[in-house]
Amino acid sequence: MALAAIYLRLSRNEEQLDIEEILTHHRNALVKLAKQHNLTYDVYQEISSGINTQRAQLTQLLNKLDEYDYLLVMDIDRISRDNAYAEQIKTMLIANDIKILTPQGAIDLTQESNEMLYSFQAMLANFEYKQIKKRLSRGRLAAAEQGRWTNSNKAPLGYEKDKNQRLVIVEEEAKIIRYIFQKTLERVSANEIAKQLDTLGWRSRIGKVLTSSHISSLRRNVVYYGVVQACRRVNGRVVDEVFVENAHEPIIEKQQWLEVQKILEENTAGKFFNKKKATRKLQNLIYCNCCERKRYIQIDGNETDYIKSCSYKISNNTCRDRGHKYLPVEDYVINKVKEKKVDLEKAIQKLKSLDTSDEENKLKNQVDSLGKQLEKFEKRQKNLTIMRADGEISKSDFLVMSEENERQIKQVKQQLELVDIQIKNLKNTEKEQRRLEKIIDVIDRIEMLDPEECNAFLKTFIKKIWFSTNAIANHNTKTEVPEVTIEIEWL
Questions:
Q1: Strands 485-490, 297-299: parallel, antiparallel or unpaired by DSSP?
Q2: Which of 54, 182, 451, 472 yields a CA-CA distance of 20 to 30 A from 371?
Q3: Which stretch of DSSP H or E encloses residue 240?
Q4: Does one domain contain both 312 and 428?
């Protein structure tokens, strides 16, 4: 009795239907076909796209082709929708003298007409796949325009899909997202956030530990301030895009999302992030005023905190700025922060009297500056297009430079959106007053805060503390010590 291999493949776009029902229907049809031809059989089945050339079950079948006489499939497109791979399989079937049986009829590849029929059906299957993919993509974009989640069958962490394919907040997961964004605003690194989430026992939906790469991806996702975004690509390039705001309830406010993006752009190298738990109030904030590198705090032999001497190389010359006791620097910065209370109280009084002119003018100056940057980048984009049209730059160079320029345009536009929100918030004086009052409350308690809490608070409005002893590190204790430099760069 001849031996046959039954191959069952369920297409990805059929997964929305009853998988078991479809597989059972296909299996019954092919088993019946095998019995009609008096064949014994082995069954191979899997769920995969026909365009995929790496399929475990199909690979296993092809490795055992010399054991079979027949291959039973529902249709040629179940073997492959990739032209080149289909031709490769055809060559293997011919070499092993294997006939194909389908419910529509037999295909004997040793006959020229049947070989041509196989190739034609494979080519048709590939064309059909592309048409289906295009229609699905257009349908997905149309659904996204209505605010429905169509990017995948799974909703992003923090949400679930309702019966209308709209995202609904899952509070148990949403607290993880809020924590990630809050800690990023406090300039805690992705690696440290991952460790903290692990300590809290907060996991992904399927119980896995959230890694730093997961966190980096989550905090860039626009879905968390209520956006549904989808696009269609051709040859790797976006040809159509949908971006719908207020499509669902946000987990975080848009302003907070934009503030996080600004921090991430400023700290692309991660050098301003707090990579471990802060044990001192000014940890990861002090930078050398001579070489602009980070200064580190250590403990000397007398158990006293001190700012370590700087020893970075600058143009083959080593920076030798002397070390210094840490506590006087901390006291100086804390006192400067306390002085900010007067300005904050004045700002609150102006808000109460609806006088926000000073704050509004500062923000409008930022808008003007960002507007000039945007104009510069947009002009550069036009110039790149002209240079490409005139053949002055290659296509690959154009794509690289254009992509980088578009990234900068996107970044400036996000910053403009953030400033615009801040201007609008000035009119909502009650909300702004409450925010400033909370800051004043923390300032009043700043000396009682533990280092971790104080460090996180300071990083919300201090970017860097520039420090220098203005003296070279050496063992001569008799030299006159000049005044140190301490300059605070406020956010």
A1: unpaired
A2: 182
A3: strand 237-244
A4: yes
Tell me, yes or no, whether 168 lies in a domain.
yes
188: helix, strand or coil = strand
Of 10-19, 110-119, 404-413, the range with the highest mean pLDDT is 404-413
pLDDT tens digits for range 267-312: 765 555 656 677 888 888 889 888 888 888 888 778 889 888 888 8
Domain boundary among 106, 140, 174: 140
Q: Where are the alpha helices (DSSP H) in 355-483?
A: 357-389, 395-427, 429-444, 451-458
DSSP 232: E
H or E element: which one contains 242? strand 237-244
Sign of the CA dihedral running 335, 336, 342, 344: negative
Measure CA 364 to chain center: 31
Q: In this model, does residue 14 exceed pLDDT 60?
A: no
**Tokens 């063992």 found at:** 475
- Quick check: 310 and 297 in contact, CB under 8 A? no
d(CA 151, CA 163): 16
Angle at 321 between CA 318 and CA 325, to 5 degrees: 145
Going by C-alpha positions, the residue among 17, 74, 48, 50 that lies closest to residue 127 is 50
Domain, as residue range, for 465: 286-485
Residue 491 lies in a domain: no
pLDDT for position 250: 92
Query: Residue 288 and residue 321: Cα distance in Å, rounded?
Result: 8
Residue 229: which CATH number?
3.90.1750.20
Neighbour count for residue 199 (Cβ, 10 Å): 8
The domain tally of the chain equals 3
Print burial letters for 237-253: b (CB count within 10 Å at least 16), e (below 16): eeeeebebeebbebbbe
CA-CA distance, 342 to 338, in Å (whole number)? 8
Task: For the chain, report the end-to-end CA distance as a whole number of angstroms.
Answer: 82
In a domain, 355, yes or no: yes
Nearest to 76 by CA among 38, 45, 107: 107
pTM score of the predicted model: 0.52
Specify the pLDDT at position 315: 67
Model confidence pLDDT, tens digit, residues 321-375 = 888 889 999 899 889 889 888 888 888 888 777 777 777 788 888 888 888 888 8
